[in-house]
């Protein structure tokens, strides 16, 4: 694929070559884009990418691809794949390192493909090193690391953990809890179907917005897309099917510190229309109370008028987002774990563990839940991890800025989270905390 004739493939090259999954096959094709003797045709690229990419867009991508190829030849240094995402680390002729990132849709075609200089992620073996890594000019951050115990969470480290901040798609955790309540009460079943309509079609992330009008999808598959792909259309379909009030009850039942901050609970379509639709809505939203805001939402009906290209300016300062503190995130994750343990079908656990967000060592972590959340100026990653000894930890990392550029695409914050988890800091921090409590004469939970 890249190595010279007769050479021995590196471990990374061998891992990439051996991955027989749709992700592995797509990653090999993407690497080949950069290394094959001839540039791929527009038709070949259009066939590989999501349908909305199209041959016309492929033609516009060709100059970018030529720029990427000119930085080679490349050598594969590392390959990591997690569910529908993968990252290939490539080195150029002078040793410069690049990250080729891929995201697939649920049909196995490429939704996102980027090549960027590799981002340096500092080591985070102590909480001080974590704080140093997150201390970035122009960005506010919040951290919560805790161990869950029968007596309640034991905090290992926190920074502004009780501060309400915008969290983007973390709101889908509450939608999932509302769905589980409806499943348990018999109001809906996994095999029921929901319908994609123009009125419920939102913007990405996800891929349900690309389905034809009238497409019917099972509740099981829709829930999987909502959590694993963070599918906005899937979440909006559930908010419509279950009712806004059901999700608001789930917010309160999950222990949100101030449920009024999440009322009225926005669909993603309403969020986009409020934030980047008619500008007068922003000021009106800030002036109105809860009843007035509900009245406003009754006037926002699909199909959407906002397009992805309209997003850019930050609006979280106006309260247009889903506001949670880090403890709220912890409590809803813990609630989902309890939901999973009641679920005799195993469907909840399969959905929640399908995408761990990072390459987590299965020899250490037997259970990993993950959710990301983002909007302009907002980035949030959270994990619930249970080790083979049955100890459960939660890690919540949040960033917020007045513009998106300092935060970027989230690769840095995700990488910092991976460093914390890989370093063993959660478990070693818990052990240090236990020794400190024992020394103080306090019983260990």
Give the secondary structure arrangement, pairings included:
Blueprint: H1 11-18, H2 22-35, H3 42-48, H4 54-70, E1 75-82, E2 85-91, E3 97-104, E4 110-117, H5 127-134, E5 140-149, E6 152-159, E7 165-166, H6 172-184, E8 193-195, E9 216-218, H7 219-228, H8 232-242, H9 244-253, H10 268-276, H11 280-287, H12 290-298, E10 323-324, H13 326-342, H14 347-352, E11 365-375, E12 378-387, E13 392-400, H15 411-423, H16 425-439
Antiparallel strand pairs: 1-2, 2-3, 3-4, 5-6, 5-13, 7-10, 8-9, 11-12, 12-13
Written description of the protein model:
A hairpin with a 5-residue loop joins strand 3 and strand 4 (110-117). By secondary structure, the chain is an alpha+beta fold. The strands form four sheets. Strands 6-5-13-12-11 form a five-stranded antiparallel beta sheet, sandwiched between helices. Strands 1-2-3-4 form a four-stranded antiparallel beta sheet. The protein has a two-stranded antiparallel ribbon with strand order 7-10. The protein has helices at 11-18, 22-35, 42-48, 54-70, 127-134, 172-184, 219-228, 232-242, 244-253, 268-276, 280-287, 290-298, 326-342, 347-352, 411-423, 425-439, and strands spanning 75-82, 85-91, 97-104, 110-117, 140-149, 152-159, 165-166, 193-195, 216-218, 323-324, 365-375, 378-387, 392-400. Residues 1-8 and 432-445 have low confidence and may be disordered. The radius of gyration is 22 Å and the shape is globular. It folds into three domains: 11-117, Nuclear Transport Factor 2, Chain: A; 123-167 and 322-445, Beta-lactamase (3-Layer(aba) Sandwich); 174-321, Beta-lactamase, CATH 3.40.710. 39% of the residues lie in helices and 20% in strands. Helix 6 packs parallel to helix 13 (326-342) and helix 7 (219-228) crosses helix 8.
